[in-house]
């Protein structure tokens, strides 16, 4: 049995992609959402987001430095450091995400693009070329020190402001993993002969 189909007036949709879309920003960097259900006032959240964005920029810088060194490491400890640098890179990926999510939770806007990170970070930029292992490790240790010092500063400021979440993040989520990574790579600078004389 044939079913009669009623022809409907359907407006055809334009499925052509619209390239180069432009619009105003919906929230400026450095601002926070004023009216949001959060126990901290906007002034405190703005200050915490500013400090966390600095930490985020430096964490992105060390994350990328770990990947650079993972690719460029050489020498007798190549295999161990190649694996360790990549492991630390993956851990830093998670730390970066944790910091960024805290900024968003506070109603702020995260720094994200490489050029912006390069302008903001306090971590000295390594050269593009390949460096010896002790130099790679020294750079990473200095970057960890910068991040750990910032964690302490953020934790103290958050404690004073009553921001328990940011305080906990700075110490438990960011400081402690950076301490551990710093310890792991620092042990590679201890002078030990690769071959013991008989």
Automatic annotation (TrEMBL):
InterPro entries: DPS_DNA-bd, DPS_DNA-bd_CS, Ferritin-like, Ferritin-like_SF, Ferritin_DPS_dom. Keywords: DNA-binding. It comes from the Bacteria. Residues 50-194 form the Ferritin/DPS domain. CDD domains: DPS. GO terms for molecular function: DNA binding; ferric iron binding; oxidoreductase activity, acting on metal ions. Belongs to the Dps family. PANTHER family: GENERAL STRESS PROTEIN 20U. This is Non-specific DNA-binding protein Dps / Iron-binding ferritin-like antioxidant protein / Ferroxidase.
């Amino acid at each position: 049995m044939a079913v009669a189909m009623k022809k409907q007036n359907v407006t055809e949709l334009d499925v052509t992609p619209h390239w180069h879309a432009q619009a105003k920003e919906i929230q400026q960097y450095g601002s926070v959402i004023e009216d949001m259900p959060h126990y901290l006032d906007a002034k405190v959240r703005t200050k915490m987001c500013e400090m966390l964005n600095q930490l985020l920029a430096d964490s992105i810088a060390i994350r990328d430095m770990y990947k650079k060194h993972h690719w460029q490491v050489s020498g007798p400890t190549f295999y161990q450091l190649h694996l360790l640098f990549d492991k630390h890179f993956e851990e830093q990926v998670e730390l970066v995400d944790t910091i960024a999510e805290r900024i968003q939770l506070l109603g702020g806007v995260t720094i994200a693009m490489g050029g912006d990170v390069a302008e903001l970070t306090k971590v000295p930029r390594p050269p593009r070329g390949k460096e010896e292992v002790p130099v790679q490790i020294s750079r990473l240790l200095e970057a960890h020190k910068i991040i750990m010092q910032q964690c302490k500063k953020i934790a103290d400021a958050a404690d004073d402001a009553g921001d328990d979440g940011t305080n906990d993040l700075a110490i438990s989520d960011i400081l402690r993993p950076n301490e551990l990574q710093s310890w792991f790579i620092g042990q590679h600078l201890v002078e030990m002969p690769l071959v013991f004389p008989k």
